[in-house]
Amino acid sequence: MRLAQATVTIDAPIDLVWSVMLDLPAYREWNPFIYRARRSGGETARVGDDILLHVKFSSGRRFASPERITTIDAPANGKATLEYEFRGPLHVTGLIRGRRRQALENVGGSTVYRTEERFRGLIGFTVSVAAVQDGFERHAAALKQRVESLKHV
Questions:
Q1: Can you give the CATH number for the domain in which 99 is found?
Q2: Number of domains in the chain
Q3: Which of 21, 127, 138, 144 gives 119 a disulfide partner, CB atoms 3.0 to 4.6 angstroms apart?
Q4: Is position 7 within any domain?
Q5: Which residue, 63, 52, 59, 34, is CA-closest to 130?
């Protein structure tokens, strides 16, 4: 099993961070890693919704990643979680499995954002964990910048 992860502390309340995370159509305005996201379903995200993430790596390579939301735990008791799993053809055949977890925790008025994805499967070793790690770090930094800029609006 291989792991990519990133963590950042955001100077903003957890509810604001959560609202930016769930506003998938706005990703194109601020997210350098997931530059476009489309979700099936109604206005509110739900477990079981399919999402298509358009990912751009630092190398310029682009990839459309079909995912399915598996966990939505809205902010409660200072914590929140959004989780989705890769659902492409390589998942269906068991060749590559991946599940991304994004967790928030209220710490002294700020919010700690943590994201990680574990890759497994028969050819999971072929995933460029370094490229995903870089993307997660760029995503986390951009999320921090976006949320903190909205806090002052």
A1: 3.30.530.20
A2: 1
A3: 127
A4: yes
A5: 59
pTM for the full predicted model: 0.91
49 domain residue, yes or no? no
| Rounded Cα–Cα distance for residues 123 and 39 (Å) | 27
* β-strand partners of 111: 10, 106
More confident residue, 128 or 23: 23
Position of tokens 């008791």? 77
Q: Does a structural domain hold residue 57?
A: no
Q: What tokens appear for 119 in the block?
A: 């890759």
In a domain, 84, yes or no: yes
In whole angstroms, what is the distance from residue 96 CA to residue 118 CA?
Answer: 10
Q: Which residue in the block uniquely carries the two structure tokens 């502390």?
A: 9
Out of 14-18, 82-86, 115-119, 128-132, least confident range: 128-132
Chain centroid, CA 47 distance in Å: 15
Tokens representing 73 are 């735990």
CA 46 to chain centre: 15
